[in-house]
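May I ask for an example protein's residues together with how it folds?

___
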Amino acid sequence: MGKGIDKVRAIAFYLPQYHPIPENDLWWGKGFTEWTNVAKAKPLFKGHYQPHIPADLGFYDLRLNESRIAQASLAKKYGIEGFCYWHYWFGNGKRLLQRPFEEVLAADTPDFPFCLGWANESWSGIWHGNPSEILIEQTYPGRQDYINHFNYLLKAFQDKRYIRVDDKPLFYIYSPDKIPDIIDFTNIFRSLAIANNLKGLYIVANTSDESWNPELNGCDAVNLNLLGSLQHQIGNNKNYFYKKIRNQLYKMGIIYRFHKLLKKPMHLYNYADAVDFLSRSENKSFESYPCVIPNWDNSPRSGLNGFILRGSTPQLFRKHLKENIKQIENNDPQKRIIFIKSWNEWAEGNHLEPDIKFGLQYLEVLKEELHYND
């Protein structure tokens, strides 16, 4: 593969919300998809890059196999090993947005590696100004539901395309701390994997807490996503009394009303500043994989209440990517993993898929830094 590292295993998160479903029709209006938010986005301040308009792949519909093949072909060309499809299981068999992946699995196409990431979170109206509104609640009914959950996933785990570490299917868990009995959950999944002639499971947990030890929580490794702690980290540069007062005003809703009056977003940071906080601060005794973020701007979903990184460029992305590749370059070849957030989270402003402003530039940076030759 070229210089330095033999190969970096770049796994990109993949959002399936680009097709209508009855629940979204009910909550947001007939025909709603992620493109609805993307297309209506407007700049909130001078120089704000919105809306993001897709280029090469267009406004695709994930019910079409042609769209899924085109995505995989582009990702493979620029060095992505595979997609981590977000998977939604809310308990008692309730699923959402499962159609695109189920069709990938059933059709044996595209012939492109994948793994599954359990999104594991309630859906609320938080990004639409109503955080107390629960649209669908994430529940944990217990052992039988965990068994049913595993059995639903088994066909995917057995697929020849499934991404493996040490010959074990990689299963990703978002918000692992919300699972009330995570040791029982992971033990059940592992024992069922063995019972079904798999080598086991390699379970990776998403966290923004650098002290969260996966080995004490039934997991094998963490994907350290520090975006969630970015506001706190940057805030450490401000004095104690300023932070205390600001936090109190925030809780009272005064800051939001002030920003709304001025028509200024509440959470606005420079990408150039943020990347210094988005890498692991110290080495750990457990497996920890970095999360690389091309950009972040969820104002298409949440307006002035959004979290915005401004000024991302392919050059700054290169710096961020290089720093995170360094963290895994001495790992065992199977564990030279970086997660990229994301392949296609367009309404959160983090996508590698080309837009009309930058085209293929982010993908070209990725290919160069991975030293990938297709």
